[in-house]
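Quick look at the format.
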Amino acid sequence: MRIMFLDDMKSRRDTFQKNAIGHTVDFAITAQEAIKHLKDNEYDAIYLDHDLEEDHYQVNKDEHEDGRFVARALREMVKHHGKIVIVHSLNESGRLNIKSILNDLFDVWLPEDVKFANLWQLEVDVLLGAIQKFNKQEE
């Protein structure tokens, strides 16, 4: 599977990469990097974080380049419509905002039932296997 993973925390990226053996993962740290990956490639699954680095906390900006910014750009990329988007942010309102932006065009998953402290310790293959099974059922 090909996955785009947006997160500004190195430890999360490293853990995801360690557990995603056998899958192609394109990592993005900023909203602009994520949008470039999404424009250039087609993905089976897209992971979005909401709060990204210092940009999220700069209150003087009209438009924060956070996960919502990526979600709005993603709506325009028809090649990704119907794909799975997993919003893994610790920010509950951010998760819900991203879901509301994408819910009509994507299968949006909010891993609320998983304690976030343990999320990065889960075997990525288990989740990816579930995504593959889901995709086969849709065909």
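Next, a different chain entirely:
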Amino acid sequence: MVKFRNLKKDEIEVRIATVNEKGASLLLYKNARCDMNILDETVGSLWGRKHYECKGNLFCSVGIKIEDEWVWRDDCGTESYAEKEKGEASDSFKRACFNWGIGRELYTSPFIWVSADKIKMSESRGKKTTYDKFYVEKIAIENGKITGLSIVNNRKERVFVWTEDKA
């Protein structure tokens, strides 16, 4: 079977999930370009994708030619707020790539909480928000599991550090 490498820190993006007066929770994710690059790097031109609709959902099927046979993995996506159809196609592709194992280590991410004192807070429509951007500074992955993680903000301040307790 095809084995994909772990994601590199600069291939992982950080998104704000929630913000309140106590701080913000963050999520790690990858984009579709990352998946395409890793497919190209690992299997060259021996991969393909196709989209189809099933029961009102858009699915993506990612195929890899292994020896003389095409093997396909599928998943459906959800619409994005920006571009509905494009976002759904991209999401279904990324999810199908997770089914191949690309970036699956992101599912092992710890809960990422950044306290309010490490964020520039604002208010928008009566709710707390932040316009800070966050980046993976370092990541350690062992056996497909995140074992260490540090996050910095756009001011290069370290706002989150975590290592797995191996006790």
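The chain has a mean pLDDT of 94.

See the schema section for token definitions.
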